Amino acid sequence: MVANPERRTALVDAGVEVLAREGARGLTFRAVDAQAGVPVGTASNYFGGRDDLLRQIDARLHIRLAPDPAIVAELLARPRDRSLVAAFMHDLMARATGDRTSWLALLEMRLEATRRPGLLASYTASVRGDLVEGMEFQRAAGLPGGDETVAVLYLAMLGLILEHLTLPGVLDGVLPGVSVPDGLVERIVATIVPEAAEKRVGERTQE
Fold it and tell me: pTM (2 decimals)?
């Protein structure tokens, strides 16, 4: 395989664009070459096959959609209450709407994983890793709620993002006076997340 990290990244990004626009069936090496503006046959020199390309797209999407460390640090300077969780969820929604292409590609990855056993295993591990990381972050940051809160919040936000990015008309006006998506983010957090972090057992004992 050719070792040119910058060219490989450009090809993977082109793959993201093709996947989001054309779906998995349209994700061919020829289409990636055309999207990247490189000679035909270039992508085939960088990837061992479609599964390899899809796995690298998965890894790239995690980078493209990752939170900005500076924003995370700024948010963590706030009190550990429900409003802080809401701020994190608003940041998540902003990243989803700001890079709609990446989120659509993620959704296409889910569908393709149902058809490709090898991809199903690797993508399941990838998404499960994200969920576990979210639980670990919640505990380390001392945010309100526990693992169950994170799991339910994950499911609710995933549903909101899915509808907002694909069928926004489903949500418009569904709750009178509640804006989409920001107002719905607030309602989700208020419904799922407790008002403040519970005190640790040791802290309660000392009282």
Answer: 0.90
